[in-house]
Amino acid sequence: MSNLIVESTYGKLRGEQLNGVCTWKGIPFAKPPVGPLRFRAPELPDSWDGIRDATSFSPVAQQTQREIMEFFGNDVSNVSEDCLYLNVWSPAADDKKRPVMVWIHGGAFLTGSGSSHWYDGASFSEQGDVVVVTINYRLGVFGFLHLGEIAGEDYATSGNCGILDQVAALQWVQENISKFGGDPNNVTIFGESAGAMSIGVLLGFPSAEGLYQKAILQSGAAANAHPVETATKVAGHVLAALQIDAANISKLEEIPPEKLLQAADLLPSMSLGPVVDGVSLPKPPEQAIAEGSAKDVTVLIGTNKDEFNIFTAFDPEWKNTNGDEENVKALFEKTFGPLLPVISAHFAGGEPLSQELFNKLVTITVFSHPAQKLAELQTNHGAPVWMYRFDWETPVFNGALKATHALEIPFVWNTLETEGTENFTGTSPERQIVADQMHQAWINFARNGNPNTDELPEWPSYDTNQRSTMIFNVESKVVNDPNKEDRVKWEQISMVMKS
């Protein structure tokens, strides 16, 4: 049992062993970001004496429960601002230098945690001889409220506290993971949705440079950092809701977290997220990547065929359209504004606007187009890139969700048997065939930067000539430029937008 006691930089930790896999949970990687540290960059954690128990998950970041995240099994029974903790799974705390995989969870920068039962690292450790780390980071108003222009230099990086938390966790990994049997020189960061969008930011984030060698982006890319003007307006709305002005900004440190959440819940979706603040993030991530900020990073990136289906399925506005043409058109106008006539001309083909077309268009704009752009930027620097698309369709909701957002997660993690997962995936035995393929591909990529496995057809790296893409399904296959028609149409629309 002595190998379950590990001496980290800050003190000793006692983990536990279950079915041959060792785990350490609730490890602090920064000071609690409370009081005067609220809206400030994370600081190094305090050391402790004795042996700290590391057999229970920490509280998750402050957040409001949302119906869609409840469906994904997100647990908010224990939330706290004191949330900057991480968890480690390893075959053993020994001198073996295993690949390290650090997971950044999704949830629209508003919800989620590193302790979701979907993100159980046991299978990666057991089947892949990999060390897995999952992290929490500050969310929503606590992680992404940009106060720099309103409150001055002390708050210059407040809009990127959540990303700075991720960097602090990666720095902890560099300093400590060798004690847990991991290799700090073979670190893969991987994440989904806002987690993948975070990685898109980290690829252009100066203080993250050198903290990882490989990156896997699932349903997110590098197109989601707000300009400082937009972020400042959002902060202004939050301060107005709280009745705080710039002269009394220190009051923000004293307000109960529930009130901050209430004020932020009035904002439109995705209003709070990473910010091009000119300090911690000097340039838009896509620009930094285009200039070579991540040229030494090997990338695996992909999307799901029907990303947006689940969002409209849970959206009361879509539920209330009752298929009425005018109601549907109003939702298109709300999302696409003056671009709607151009989009209709390219994509509707004279047919009435529909929820199906809406889902397809938002999937392209938010997910597949940014993923292709990031892949292109990386390949321009000669960096190895692999592209995938997840096509397996879930039968739940009478098949309406198809290959929707987040569906690939339990396949990647091989956590299909986790309680409640069948509510999303169904129970078909064929699921495991897809999970075996994806799980091993991710393990191989973490091990040597190449996702090819014996279970898959040969998977060439991505380039702009062939655009080779692995289509994951019961019978996976490689297709060159699988959504070429939509890609070309959207590039034409993008040209119209720029002109």
Automatic annotation (TrEMBL):
Keywords: Hydrolase. Residues 4-483 form the Carboxylesterase type B domain. Signal peptide: none annotated. SUPFAM superfamilies: alpha/beta-Hydrolases. InterPro entries: AB_hydrolase_fold (IPR029058), CarbesteraseB (IPR002018), Carboxylesterase_B_AS (IPR019826), Carboxylesterase_B_CS (IPR019819), Lipase_GDXG_HIS_AS (IPR002168), Type-B_Carboxylest/Lipase (IPR050309). Its EC number is 3.1.1.-. Pfam families: COesterase. The keyword Protein transport does not apply. It comes from the Bacteria. The keyword Hydrolase applies. Belongs to the 'GDXG' lipolytic enzyme family. This is Carboxylic ester hydrolase. It comes from Mesobacillus maritimus. The lineage of its organism: Bacteria, Bacillati, Bacillota, Bacilli, Bacillales.
